[in-house]
Structures are given as structure tokens and as C-alpha cells.
Design a protein that fits this description.
Blueprint: H1 2-27, H2 30-38, H3 51-64, H4 72-75, H5 88-124, H6 128-155, H7 157-168, H8 181-185, H9 188-229
Helix pairs in contact: 1-5, 1-6, 1-9, 2-3, 5-6, 6-7, 6-9
């Protein structure tokens, strides 16, 4: 049926986003920041912010991206000396980041609903194999995209980082001074590790899907062989 083919194509082209966004969402937690700060080779703050302070302030910035608070959640934060934690440029950027994150999460949830509905449709139409095939092709597409990202990352992470920000934010709004709090909390090494980990998690997810498919095929072949020898 034509609708089945359309659904298959949509599954294939949207699965990479689903997998990547799942990986990203796993990292939008204070736990990932704690993991980074705990590594011995992670750069210390050149302006003297302790690891405890980094953990404290980064948790506010990270939680802001997924909670329902307005920018005052960050704007009211103060260092012990009374100075504002984030300046106006940083607060404006965090508003933009939250908008991007929230939008991507809404799309992610909507696509999750679409995948569930498509699954039900294929089951009702007795076309389970068509659904599985689309998911597998989507997994291969995901792997291809991740490999391309890893190559780009290996060649020039700074260029990849720049292109990523140019895609989602206005020119210049994501550039800060080294003594700005956002840079002190989240230096370039933090984002390099985040990109790498997102790629690894995405490859594992796509590989898990393909692995399950291969396992099921192997079990079916053994059953068919047993029946034929029966």
C-alpha cells in the first residue's frame, strides 16, 4: 500500500533525529557535568571557581533548559560577593538555548507518538516486517550520519562547534569572553566530550536495534531449519 511506503520513508528519515535527541536528552542533566568536573584532566577554572561551585552553578544552568521557569531562575543567582552569576548576554543566550531545547523535545515527543502509531498501524495491517525493515534502514542511516559527524569532529571540532551554533543561533550571540560564567562552567572541552558521548550513545542505540533484528532473524532461521529437518 502507498501509505505503508510513506510511513516507512518517514520512519527512516526521522529515526536519526529520534536517536540523537535521545542521546542528547540523557546528557542534559547535572550528572553529566559532575562526571566531567570529576575527571582529573578536565581543565580547572582559571579564575578560581572550585569544583563544588561549578557543580552548584552548572546544575542551575542545566536544569533551566528543561524546567518551566523563566529567565529570572538564572538572573537572580549571585556569587557570594553579590555579583550576578550571569550577565545580560549570557542570559539572552540561555533563553535562546532553552527555546531550541524545548522545541527539539516537543518534536521528539511528537515523533515518539508517530512511531507508536505507525507500529500499531503495521501490526493491524499484518505488515510487521515492513516496520522492522524501516527501523533497520533508519538505524543504518543514523550510523552513517554519526560516522560523518565523528569524521568532522576529528578533522576540526572547533569548526563543527561553530557550524552547530550558526545553525541554531544568531551570529555572535553565542560568543563569550573567557571570564564569562558560561565559559568557566562549560569550557570547549565540555562540549567536545558531549559531542563524542552523544555520538557513542547514538551508535550504541542504532547498533542495539540492528543487533536485536539480527538475533531475531537467527532464531527464526534456526526454527525454520529445525522444522525442515523435523
Amino acid at each position: 500500500m502507498k501509505i505503508n511506503r510513506v510511513l516507512q520513508i518517514l520512519i527512516i528519515i526521522t529515526l536519526p533525529f529520534m536517536v540523537l535527541m535521545a542521546s542528547v536528552r540523557l546528557l542534559i542533566t547535572p550528572g553529566f557535568a559532575a562526571f566531567e568536573y570529576d575527571r582529573t584532566w578536565f581543565p580547572k577554572d582559571p579564575y578560581g571557581m572550585s569544583q563544588t561551585e561549578r557543580l552548584r552553578w552548572s546544575s542551575y544552568a542545566i536544569n533551566y533548559l528543561t524546567n518551566d521557569e523563566d529567565i529570572s531562575y538564572l538572573g537572580e543567582l549571585r556569587f557570594d560577593d553579590g555579583e550576578a552569576l550571569f550577565n545580560e548576554r549570557e542570559l539572552d543566550h540561555m533563553i535562546d538555548v532553552k527555546h531550541v531545547v524545548k522545541t527539539c523535545l516537543v518534536i521528539w515527543y511528537a515523533l515518539a507518538g508517530f512511531f507508536f502509531a505507525a507500529l500499531i498501524w503495521f501490526l493491524v495491517m499484518h505488515e510487521w516486517k515492513a516496520f522492522v525493515g524501516a527501523v533497520c534502514w533508519g538505524s543504518w542511516l543514523t550510523i552513517g550520519i554519526i560516522v560523518a559527524i565523528l569524521i568532522f569532529l576529528a578533522v576540526s571540532f572547533n569548526r563543527l562547534f561553530e557550524r552547530f551554533h550558526q545553525l541554531f543561533f544568531k551570529d555572535g550571540t553565542w560568543l563569550f569572553y573567557q571570564n564569562d560564567t558560561l565559559i568557566r562552567l562549560f569550557p570547549i572541552e565540555f562540549w567536545r566530550d558531549a559531542f563524542i558521548l552523544v555520538c557513542i550513545l547514538s551508535l550504541l542505540m542504532a547498533g542495539f536495534i540492528l543487533g536485536i533484528k539480527a538475533l531475531v532473524n537467527n532464531i527464526q532461521r534456526k526454527k525454520e531449519l529445525k522444522n525442515s529437518n523435523g
